[in-house]
Amino acid sequence: MSTVAPPPQESSDSTEVPELKVVTDATCTFCGCVCDDMELTVQDNKITKAKNACVLGKAWFLNHHIEDRPDATIEGQPASYEQAIERAADILSNAIYPITYGLSDTTCEAQRVAVAISDWIGGCVDTTTSVCHGPSGIAFQEVGEVTCTLGEIKNRADYIVFWGGNPAESHPRHFTRYSLMPKGQFLPNGRKDRTAVLVDVRKTKSARAADIFLQVKPRSDFELAWAMRAIAKGVEIDPSIEEQTGISLERLTEVVEGMKAAKFGVILFGMGLTMTRGKHLNSEAILSLARDLNKYTRWTAKPMRGHGNVTGADNVVTWQTGFPFGVHLGRGYPRFNPGEWTSSDLLARGEADAALIIASDPMSNFSQPARDHLEKIDSVVLDPKLSETAKTATVAFTTSTYGINTTGTVYRMDDVPIPLRPAFDSPYRSDYEILKAIEKRIREKQLNGNLSS
Ligand code: SF4
After folding, report:
1. 10 Å Cβ neighbour count for 330?
2. Strands 409-411 and 417-419: what pairing?
3. Domains of the chain
């Protein structure tokens, strides 16, 4: 981090010029690429330049401003942190079936405390993974994962299959920093040394960057992946696969032969695969295809993750419970059952009686029955913004923004932990500080309750 002299002012009545600060190697937490080469120029608690950021990263940094809101509210009325922490601890420790949800846009340190709170109160802990790559989380449990880092992709991957995603628009620096374009240790000519295939139901912007575009018919990814597994193994397949998938057998064979001839391959799959018909069976098919290809050469598969620290949420919840999301801790030991203990389902069935929502906005994207129930029960919400969920919260905390105002650790989409270098302080507390205070108060209440009973 360095401080440089401000530019000369032509004429001003005031001699006070805000200090100009440059933060190097800062980290962008807007998407799962978690680019850690940002150079941020900060003036008067405002980021004025974000060098190296893509269009999404620039919007994330340059539009950031500290909102003028109370530290906390209780039933819509301004409250101090202490009052709000007391009420939050009351709600959570008195609940019979509490849920904790969100976590993909906060630090690993805060995620860890959120899991601990869920454990102390015997609730369910769930993350936004349950509404994006949850099927992949289930598939990992079923068939495992042959994995790699983005660094290995950059240095080694000469054959890349993007499946059900549009990185050109969702992860704008993925192609240039990690996958398609960069020159790598074993790929001195960069893009020229790589073959890229895109599998998708429509011709997105990413298709222009690929050498081969396979336009699969909607809802037939499962059939396509299994056909590729069969071709890889030399099993004769029924030509009706062409009608089912919309891709000729000849084309498919050409791609599979190319994959077998590669030195290092990777399948990068997105929600276009995991959230269509077949869901976790689609992810299982892709992970199995990568595993099968290791009979011939080195192949790997990785999900393309969206939120800045959704991968951290998976890692932290898995370290602590053994499962990545949708975990019930009410019996004193963890149980995993997506569909039963995932937040949107629990709420839609009207089962949860209190909610702790961290850095997420389920009131904007859950089903109507889930939203209706969430509105009825007591909820504690931590968010830097006045989200739809914060508006309906019983207790709402205004928090600082991770990466911009607070330090901590986040996980890149390839499970590599990256430290944060904040640009400037916020007047609001971090998720970690608030959650730690709530946890402390819950423990005090539980211990006092035990002593007096
Ligand atoms: S690709 Fe993602 S992490 Fe990188 S600068 Fe763009 S938004 Fe930020």
Report:
1. 17
2. antiparallel
3. 2-62 (no CATH), 72-132+308-405+423-452 (3.40.50.740), 135-303 (3.40.228.10)
How remote is the CA of residue 354 from the centroid of ligand 1, in Å?
34
In this predicted model, what pLDDT tens digit does every residue of 136-160 receive, in sequence order?
888 888 899 999 999 999 999 999 9
Tell me which H or E stretch contains 450.
helix 431-452
Q: Which atom of ligand 1 is nearest to the CA of 54?
A: 6
| Atom 1 in ligand 1: residue holding the nearest Cα | 173
Q: Which residue has better confidence, 8 or 157?
A: 157
Question: Average of pLDDT values for 394-407?
Answer: 97
| Protein residue with its CA nearest to atom 7 in ligand 1 | 57
Sheet bearing 195-200, strands edge to edge: 212-215, 195-200, 159-163, 264-269, 298-303
The number of the ligand 1 atom at minimal distance from the alpha carbon of 31 is 2
Q: Is the pLDDT of residue 7 over 80?
A: no
Distance (Å) from CA 44 to ligand 1 centroid:
24
Q: Rounded to an integer, what distance in angstroms lies between the CA atom of residue 159 and that of residue 92?
A: 50
Give this prediction's pTM.
0.92
| pLDDT of 10 | 43
pLDDT digits (tens, 9 = 90+) for 285-335: 999 999 999 999 999 999 999 999 999 999 999 999 999 999 999 999 999
Residues enclosing ligand 1, CB less than 6 A?
A: 28, 30-31, 33-35, 53-54, 56-57, 171-173
